[in-house]
Amino acid sequence: MQESTKLARLQENLQNYERVVVAFSGGADSSLLAHVAHETLGPERCHVVTAVSPSLAGQERQEAGDLATEWGLRWTTVDTDEMDSAAYRANDADRCGHCKDALMDALDPLARKEKATVLLGVNVDDLGDHRPGQEVAAQRGAHFPLVDAGFTKETVRSISKKLGLRTWDKPAAACLASRLPYGTAVSVTVLSSVERAETALKELGFVDLRVRHYADTARLEISLKQLPEVLTQREAIVEALHYVGYRYVTLDLEGIRSGNLNQALGD
Fold it and tell me: Which residues contact 261 (CB under 8 A, 6 or more apart)?
């Protein structure tokens, strides 16, 4: 199916909703969905909402606000309380499900008030990974318009570029809790350490990255094209991560791999 056809299908599908509440993290997927929903339905029928919690990096929250202002979205934030859940903090294989439960708890009151449907920016490629949160969200009534219209991650980026959205090439930015191996307890302190470490690396010029948290060890995942720069800036990287509190700094030679911690589930 051609990209123009997929975009037309997305717009047509969105017209079938009376009103929508779009979960908006500021990433490429949710940004495209929010922008197209806003342009298709208008601000009266499209409410864009960013969920704020310790698992959302402060820079991502700021970026979402900047995009909302730039695009003229009807935008608000809501606080989510997943950190209050012992099941979430335990960080088992269903952590994302507990998180989506908290997200829907926050969005449902808005949706009921506006008689709207909650939309999430899930694409077809997301369906192949271990994503219990998608199942929970669907069970609670959320819809995935990008999936319905056949959007892959490549489609999202290509159409975003054609529409002039500066998020078209934005690196994926999963929640900070995804940096912790399953079984490692989630805490505000640990999430803050991860955020500070990744911010320090970005300030050194690294763009697409993850800092995986293993107690006092930081395992760096950097895009393959920037791996040579790691050695060039080795001393600055080590100093920055020691300052955050990590004792050891290691490098994953396979580079960044979204969702790679899910591999442990099959071991």
Answer: 178, 180, 181, 182, 212
Tell me the chain's radius of gyration from C-alpha atoms.
Answer: 19
Q: What are the tokens at 26?
A: 């500021």
- Please tell me the pTM assigned to this model: 0.92
Asked if pLDDT for residue 126 goes beyond 90, the answer is no
Q: pLDDT tens, 127-174?
A: 876 678 889 999 999 999 999 999 999 999 999 999 999 999 998 888
DSSP the chain: --HHHHHHHHHHHHHT-S-EEEE--SSHHHHHHHHHHHHHH-TTTEEEEEEESTTS-HHHHHHHHHHHHHHT--EEEEE--GGG-HHHHHT-TTHHHHHHHHHHHHHHHHHHHHT-EEE----GGGGGS--HHHHHHHHTT-B-HHHHTT--HHHHHHHHHHTT-TTTTPPP---GGGGSPTTSPP-HHHHHHHHHHHHHHHHTT--SEEEEEETTEEEEEE-GGGHHHHHHTHHHHHHHHHHHT-SEEEE-TT---TTGGGGGGG-
Q: How do residues 109-120 score in pLDDT, each as one tens digit?
A: 999 999 999 999
Q: Which of 6-20, 119-133, 171-185 has the lowest mean pLDDT?
A: 119-133
